Amino acid sequence: MLYETNETAMKLEAEGKRIVKLNIGDPDEPTSPQIIDTALKAMKSGRTKYSSASGEKRLREKLAAIHGVPPDNVIVTTGSKWGAFSTMFLLLKPGDNIVLPSPHWSAYELIARNLGAETRHLRTRLCENWRIDTEKLQLLIDQRTRLLVLNNPNNPNSKVIDERTISEMTQISDDKGIKVLADEVYSDISFVKTKSILDFCASNILIKSFSKTFAMTGWRIGYAIAEKPLIERMTKLNQITLTSVPAFIQDAALTALELKDEIAEKSRQKYQKRADLACDLLTRTNMKFSKPDAPFYLFPKREGLDSERFALDMLHRGVAITPGTAFGDYKEHFRIALTAPDNDIRQGLNTICEALE
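Request: output the structure for the sequence above.
Response:
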């Protein structure tokens, strides 16, 4: 439903209908001109040839220094989604399973399903502040479990997993002999401190992206950090599939990293204001929700709501949202992405509130 809703919204736009798009986590701000200038200069200087399948050395070295790992443990990917796909492709076989705290970004489950693997949901609930029950985690793991997939901060509820819970989860995973695949694409712009999976166990797998922090969604660049044998296998997979991320995009990513502190702080301030606005408006309704720990999402609940029907109704009212069923068994929830201009967010939220009166 996540991708179907977006396609429908774009189709309605193409037909001339104005849609306030609160359905997808694509930042509305432009990519920094300095990042764009670097890419342009790189292209003009001839940086348009094949690149290394593992990524440009300078970029891997910079990322390795940031995360305190050897450069051989880093690979540059076409966004974090390819990092997730290639990891699962290489580690999963038909009949295997992954454990996934839910609500969850739908891509993880769709990838596993297409590889013939089962997804076991570790369900969390709003009424418990999305707390992950580590005792239930142990019950979901068996001899065919290969990965525990964490999204921290979480999409769609913008919840940050606390340090104690991550520690317990990584200890359980280590005891059971399974890997943790941690997607931390929102961590650099989180409103609260976020601990990385690498702080607990260097043998786990981290994927990140330049998309959210640097407003570079269309550039398609991210990276993965893992033990050297897996990175080598991912490099070989790149060689026979996407070949490499263009060198001029990697040069731009280096400039992005130089500007990271400035851009991340500006982004945090902007989305904190938007989150405060959204919370203020939603508090006036009978919806239930948790205050976000990070950009860009809220995941409110309305008792008795059929969120798929509601999302369709909202499209006809000119507002795109994503039904909660896109993120697991959350029919009474829907996701709001605060990635439109401020006036559109206010208009869209007011329309949502009016529809639920």
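Residues 151 and 183 are 5 Å apart (CA to CA).
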